[in-house]
């Protein structure tokens, strides 16, 4: 249908026709002309209307604008509303005619336009008809084609393409099924990973996880795989955490298979260096946790309650709560635990060394790329340096932990054996440190030195007080020991005879020969797989045995019987002069023989008053205790050399105090100064003064004005007092000779033991302090035998009545004129005194053996005193003739002859002293002057007597005064 719009009936420049006048024609194509044909009336009216185009245009232009508005315009309503209130038929008709003219003009204009476009319309209609024909033909062709395609589809294409499609679908589904199975396997991997981690198969777990990550990246286009990939990454991190935990387990108990798995796992992760950093961190943590748990366990056990305050303490503070009873077990367990950690580190290094050797020389089947080889070399170098550097770090941590434990407790009240065990354990730990990393363990040495000095001062002070108590309660009776007694038999000296001590300090190892050190296995070799080096001291302690006491005081053996039988056949000439001289001249300073040899026993004659008894050492319980103390001190010094000087200084004080006590008890006497016998040498006097000043505490009343330092007073000990049970004034016991012999000879025996230990002490003493040790031996130890003179002199001075002899000599008439053939009575009295003395010595020897040096000293003192009494008696003579001088010589020769039968002492002491004085009576004036200058051993009174009595009748008064003046001018040093 064709719609003719108003614009099609307008002219150029003319307004649009009103809608009421337009012809909107919707007609079929074939009926268009019929529809447009006006009625007869309309044609007539049209013909009647003017044909002038301009007039026609004017009519069209006269149409109201409102008619051009829109199709919905209601023209009837419009026209009706225009009607005036009063209608006029004529006006209405005129107006109607006007409207008709306007409609006729519009219709005519439309008809003209239609006629103008009719050829184009006809042509277009023909094209439409042709198109309709073509469409009908295409419809027929399509119908035929569809029919034929349906036949083809049913006959061939449907079946064949269906097969191909199914095959393609099958192929796609097969691939999809494989992917789904892989995805299912990946999603179930976490179960297998958990199982492998429980089995500690860390390399397998990491390998599986890495393969799963690789597979997940292949299927990352699936949405479910993205979640799986993140889950695998979390699982890998979890494996690393568990691997870190597994690595930490190797710090306490190293297992080769376990560590190999862990290292292989870190290699797969490419984190070998990270693993080594973590390992050192774990070792540090293991040391801290181990020591804390060990100490905490003992502290809580001893506390006896469930108080958790200890768990929150710092390790250093926790160590201060260890009790004395649990100190050693805790220290032992602490060292055992630290040993396990260090052994694990040692085995870790050993594993890496073996592993590096295997990697350095790969097998023939191995093929390693250059990059992998370079990375491997870098890793091995890093690991090696890290492990070597870690040795010092770990040992430093161990030292600091043990140091905190050592210093956390005051050990001054420990028992000696317990403290020795502590030193033994620390010494073994220092040996471990030296073998572990070559360290000298300065931290441990300093801490144990501090504790040792502190303990030793307290211990030594207590021992000195104990020694004072022993000395004040000592009755100086013999301690019955076996004849073959040796200090090596005592527990305290066992360490000197052992080939391998239960704990050998690093310093002792260094002192051993290189060859022996190479042959001995290190602790890490001995206890590589089992055992612990901190368990041996207990076993050693149980094995100690000691048997030094005799069943009675007079043990005999066959060797000594043989010796005494040989003695019976020996003559006096068999005694070596050198041996005699050793005991006669005590001022030589030579140390006495260290043991009684066969020759010494053979040399004993009547002077040795105990030939029927075994030659057992003379010592007391106190002496034995001092020797044991020395052994304990040396044992401590042997384990810990840094305090060697302090220990040796204390050892010297033990000897000093014992020597001073023996001197104070038995040797101190004011008569020494007037004796002029040189009983106390200058060296002995210096030693005694030194001991008194440095060791002996002065009573408050004696020196109230002096306030010494507190520390100085602490190091001093009060002077001991002799027990009231010891009586030294009884003449029947020779003024306590038995006790004096036991005391003095026990001191000499103690000095002999010190002499035997000198070389051992010298090896322990620091080089800078060795002069102290040498001075101690030369100035103190060697003076022990010199105490025999002053101690036995007191006995000799009282054993014989010298005053009676002087009275008897005063009654003799010396100015006789005839030479006498009979000696005076005083000689016989004096000899009887000596015989009585000899008998009393024999009585004493039944209880205490009197050694040859002692009897010699006693006889020497008695003879010297007798000879000097003789000279004093001769010096008291007022008148004397030459015959009187001859009588003096006769008396003295008689005395010597009888005396030589009583004693084997040769030569007779002071024989020349008497003879020279008697012969001086025959000197001239000039010779007498020279005699006075050369013989200062005589007193001024004795020399004056020579001048007055001998020369008085031969020289004038002036010459006598000259000689007496020479005597007064002589400065005689007291001897």
UniProtKB/TrEMBL annotation:
User: What keywords are annotated for this sequence in UniProt?
Assistant: Coiled coil, Protein transport, Signal, Transport
Question: Where does the Syndetin C-terminal domain lie?
Answer: 734-968
What's one GO BP annotation on this UniProt entry? protein transport
Q: Where is the signal peptide?
A: 1-32
Vacuolar protein sorting-associated protein 54 N-terminal domain boundaries: 60-351
Query: What cellular-component terms does GO give this entry?
Result: cytosol; EARP complex
Matching entries from Pfam families are given as: Syndetin_C, Vps54_N
Coiled-coil annotated spans = 222-249
**Can you name one GO molecular function term for this protein?**
SNARE binding
Quote the protein name from its UniProt record.
Answer: VPS50 EARP/GARPII complex subunit
What is the scientific name of the source organism? Answer: Takifugu rubripes
The encoding gene: vps50
